[in-house]
Each structure stands twice: as structure tokens, then as C-alpha cells.
Amino acid sequence: MWDIIADQLTGDEWFARTFGLCPKLCAKGLPLALVTASIHPDDALRVDKDIEEALSNGDTYRCEYRVLHQDGVYRWVEASGRIERDVQGKPIRSPGVLLDIDSRRTAEAERDRLNELLQIFTAAVPGVVYAKDLEGRMLVANRGTAELVGKPPEFFIGKTDLEFLDDEQQARVLMETDQRIMQSNVSEQIEEKVNLADGSAAIWLSTKAPLLD
After folding, report:
1. Mean pLDDT throughout 177-206?
2. For residues 116 and 132, what is the distance between their CA atoms, to the nearest angstrom?
3. Which of 3, 59, 149, 152 is deepest in the core (most CB within 10 A)?
4. Can you tell me the distance from the alpha carbon of 28 to that of 20, in angstroms, rounded to the nearest whole number?
5. Which residues are 94's β-sheet partners?
6. Residues ≥6 apart with Cβ < 8 Å to 40
7. What pLDDT, on a 0 to 100 scale, did the predictor assign at position 212?
8. Cα–Cα dist 90/203, whole Å
9. CA-based torsion, 137, 139, 144, 149: positive or negative
10. How far apart are CA 41 and CA 39, in angstroms?
């Protein structure tokens, strides 16, 4: 709870340890500036701006940032709450909740890193190389895929074959094949009929494999 008028922020023991503060002092109340001093320098200005906007215009707020724990390691947290006002509309207090989201943010960072590596790899490999998610949406594709489809990557990334291929029947066959391979967890080398961008038909020898976690 932040008493805005007195500028005293109180929190429980977990809150105190998250910010590297003394639990007893935190239970009594500390100035907001002393508490937010533990926020990562790269996040501090953004957090200050979010607080100012909530006080000026908002009723609720939510912000994710890194905070320095007692062990000297920065970890991600999510702060959310609401601004309570008096009858004149002046902010008087702000109850809120602090959540530990470090595991989620770490997983997201690792996912982004792997996606970047996958994009670099597919761009460097000749031929037609792409990856799809479990629903058949295109995640990443190289230049060869764009030339085969006859459309730029921004047109088909995030879409299924049914959404970007002109031949609906062909798209259904491709998606059924992909689903069978993903469900079997076994790679296959198969011949697939594909209509090229100029309208002509071609037979491709495709190697498809499920990416296992």
C-alpha cells in the first residue's frame, strides 16, 4: 500500500526482500523513492513515467520491471494496482500487488533468442526452408520459400497454408501431411505437388521433421 499524501509505502516481508529492503522498515513505511531505487537503471525512467501517468490520468496501472534482490541479482516483477482518490479527484492512496514473473520473462528471452537463431539459419540455407507451429502457422521462412509462394514473407508469416496458398485443395493436403508428421514425431521424406508462382506445377522432394522440446 502506498500512502500518496504521506509518501509512505508499506509491504510484507516478501515485498521487502524482493526490493532488498529491511522487512521491519518496510512494514512501517518507506518513501517511494527509496523503494524504487532498487529498480534496474534501464527500467527506472519507464516506471517513473508509468507512475506519473497513473497519478495524473489513470485509475489502474500495471508495469513490468527488474528489481535488485538481496542476493545482488536483478529479477523481473510485475506491479499492478489502482489509484484511489478523494472527492476532489486528488490521489490519496494506491493499493497494489507485486508478482514474481522472472521465470516467464527468462523463458520469453530464451524463446526470442532461439527464434533469432532459427531465422539466421533459415536465411543462410539454400532451397526452401521454413518452420511452422502446431497449428500450421508459418513461423519463419527463407528466401526460397518466398520465391516458391510468390509472395513476400510478411504476407504469409503467421498464417497457415489455407490462408496464403491460392489452391485450397493443395493447402489442405500440405497441412494434413504436416499434422501427421508432427503427431507421429517421426521425420519423413515425401514427394509433394506444389503450384509455383507462375502457375506451373512442380513435384518437390520434401524432408519434414517435428521439432521436439
Report:
1. 87
2. 15
3. 149
4. 15
5. 2
6. 65, 66, 67, 68, 74
7. 76
8. 71
9. positive
10. 6
Q: What CATH architecture does domain 125-208 belong to?
A: 2-Layer Sandwich (3.30)
| pLDDT in the model for residue 123 | 76
pLDDT at residue number 188: 92
Q: Give residue-wise pLDDT tens across range 98-130.
A: 999 999 998 888 888 887 887 787 777 888 888
Whole-structure pTM value: 0.61
Residue 176, CB-side half-sphere exposure with 13 Å CA sphere: 7
Query: Residues 180-191: what's their mean pLDDT?
Result: 92
Which range is least confidently modeled, 79-88, 99-108, 151-160, 191-200?
Answer: 191-200
3-state secondary structure of 79: strand
Q: How confident is the model at residue 79 (pLDDT cuts 50, 70, 90)?
A: very high
Phi, psi angle pair for 196, to nearest 5°: -75, 170
Which segments within the chain are labelled E, that is strand? 2-3, 8-9, 60-68, 74-82, 84-85, 91-94, 96-100, 130-132, 138-141, 188-195, 201-208
Residue 36: partners with Cβ closer than 8 Å, 6 or more residues away: 44, 47, 48
Separation in Å, CA 88 to CA 85, 92, 148: 7, 11, 64
Domain ranges of the chain: 2-106, 125-208
Answer whether 2-106 and 125-208 agree in fold: yes
Contact yes or no for 202/186 (Cβ under 8 A): no
Which residue in 91, 90, 71 sits closest to 81, CA to CA?
91
Under DSSP, is residue 199 helix (H, G, I), strand (E, B) or coil? coil
| 100: helix, strand or coil | strand
